[in-house]
Amino acid sequence: MTSENIIEVLIVGSGFGGLTAAMNLKKMGINDFVILERRAFFGGTWKQSVYPGAAVDVPSPLYSIDGEPFPWEHLYAKQKQLAQYTEHIIEKHNLAPSIELCATVIEAKWCKTHWQVKLENGKAFKSKIIINATGPLSSPAMPNIHGLQDLRGQVIHSNNWHDGIDLNNKLVAIVGSGASAVQIIPSIINRVKKLHVFQRTPHWVLSRFDYHIPKRFRATLALRPINFALRTLIYWLFELRVIAFKYSPALLRVLGAIPAKKHLLKQVQDENLRKQLTPDFTIGCKRILVSDTYYPALQHQNTVLHTKDDYIEYASYEGLQTKQSGLIDADLIILATGYNPEKSMVSYQVIGEKGKTLGAQWRDYPRAYLGTSMPNFPNFFIVTGPNTGIGHTSALFVIESQMKYIMTCIKKLHEKSACSIQPIPEAEEGYTAMVHREMEKTVWYKGRCNSWYKNEHGKVIAMFPGFSFSFRRLCKKFAHHHHIIK
Ligand SMILES: Cc1cc2nc3c(=O)[nH]c(=O)nc-3n(C[C@H](O)[C@H](O)[C@H](O)COP(=O)(O)OP(=O)(O)OC[C@H]3O[C@@H](n4cnc5c(N)ncnc54)[C@H](O)[C@@H]3O)c2cc1C
C-alpha cells in the first residue's frame, strides 16, 4: 500500500476470474492487491453451485487453468471436484490471506487518480486499479410467476441450493429445461414422489460421452506434458465447432442437429413425446446441452412433463395453477431459470470520469474494448465482460486471454510511471462495431431463438463471434494507439 493507503489492485469476485487475476499479478511481482468477495466463502461458481448433478459441460483437462493440471475423476468434472480444484488453486498460490469475505461492493467511483470503493458493510477502499470479476452467471434470474411467495411449499433457485433441502418422497416441481434442469432432473428423479417438469422451450441435447477416469490413470493424465497434449487435442476439436456456428449451416447439421435427433430417437420411443422434445430453433442458438440421463429421466414413472401450452398461470398457497392440468400441489419448487448476465457482469454502481456512470454508458447495451476496458473508466477492467462468452469451449480460456491484455495494461502503467490507462472511444466503437457485424453471421444471432446470450432488445451481448484463438490474439497484441496512457 502507498502512503495514502491506496491499494495497487482491487479485485472484485473470487471465482476463477478473480483467482487468475491474482495469480497473474503475483507472477508480475505485484502483491499489493485485495480480493473482495460478497459471499461468506470464496471460490465463485463451483463453490456456490451445489445443486444435485452440478457438473461442467466442457472436458476438465480444458476447463482448468493453463499449467495447473489436476487428477480429474471424470472427463466432465462434477461440482465437488471443481470445488476441490478451486481450493487447491487458492492454497497452492497462497491467495486466502488476500481475500476479504462478506465484502459486497456497492459502488466504485473514479477520483482523478484512483478508485474509491464502497462496501455494503460500511467499509471503504482506495485502489489505483480495479479488476472486476463478478461473474456473468452469478446472479439468478427469477421467473415472473404471480403469487410465488404465497406457496405452501418451499421455493428455491438452483443457484441457492443447500444441504438442508429434503427431496425424499416429496412432490416437486421444476421450472425450466435448460443447462441446470437437465442436470438436476436425472439426479433427483429416483428420490422424489412426483416431479412436474415445466418446459417452456425444449433444448437440443447431445450425448455427453463422459468417462470415469480410473484411479491408476489420474496422476499420469495430470502430468504436465500429457495434460498439455490432451488439453491441446480437446481445444482444437472443440474449436472446430465455430466453423459450424458461424460459417457452415451444413456442418452445424452434421455435427449438431443430426446427432441430436439420433440421440432423441434412440432414447425416446414415444413419437408424441419426441415431438414435444424437439426444438424449433437452429441447434447452437441456445447453449447445446449434453446428457445421457435427461431423456430417460423424463420418461420415468414419477415424471410429468408440462409443455409451453400447459404453463403456470399463477401460484397460490394450494400450489401451482396450470393452464391445462389444473392445480398442482408441490412441497418444493425448483427454479432452474438461469442467470441474469447483464445484472451480474458488473454488479454495482460504477462512476467514471466526469461523473459518467457505467449504466449511462451502457444504456443501449453493454460494450467494451476487447470486452474488458472502456473509455471514461480508467484502470477498470472487466473479466468475462460484454461479448466474451463462448458456446463451444472453456470460459477459462477466455478469462486467461483477457488476463494477457489486462496485465499488459498494468505493465504499461508501470513502465511509464503513468496514472491511468483507458481505450480511446474510437477504438471501443470500432471493436464493438466489428463484434456486432460479425455476430450477424452466427447462429446466436440468426438461429431463431431467445436466449440469455441476448439482452431484452435482442442484441447478442454475451458471445464473442469467432474463434477463441482470434480473441486471444487480439488480447495478446497490445495496440498502443488504441489507448490513452497518462
Ligand atoms: C451452474 C454453472 C455451470 C457452468 N458451466 C460451465 C461450463 O460447463 N463451461 C464453462 O466454460 N463455463 C461454465 N460456467 C460459467 C462459469 O461461470 C465460468 O466458467 C467461470 O467459473 C466464471 O468465473 P468468474 O470468476 O468470472 O465468475 P464466478 O465464478 O461467478 O465468480 C464471481 C464472484 O464474484 C462475486 N461477486 C459478485 N458481485 C460481487 C460484489 N458486488 N462484491 C463482491 N463480490 C461479488 C460472486 O459472489 C462470485 O463469487 C458455468 C456457470 C454456472 C453458474
From TrEMBL:
Matches recorded under SUPFAM superfamilies: FAD/NAD(P)-binding domain
InterPro entries to which the protein is assigned, alphabetical: FAD-bind_Monooxygenase_sf, FAD/NAD-bd_sf
EC number: 1.14.13.-
GO MF terms held by the record: oxidoreductase activity
UniProt keyword list: Oxidoreductase
Enzyme class of the recorded protein, top EC level: oxidoreductase
Organism domain of life: Bacteria
PANTHER family: FAD_NAD(P)-BINDING DOMAIN-CONTAINING PROTEIN-RELATED, L-ORNITHINE N(5)-MONOOXYGENASE-RELATED
Name by which UniProt lists this protein: NAD(P)/FAD-dependent oxidoreductase
Organism: Glaciecola petra
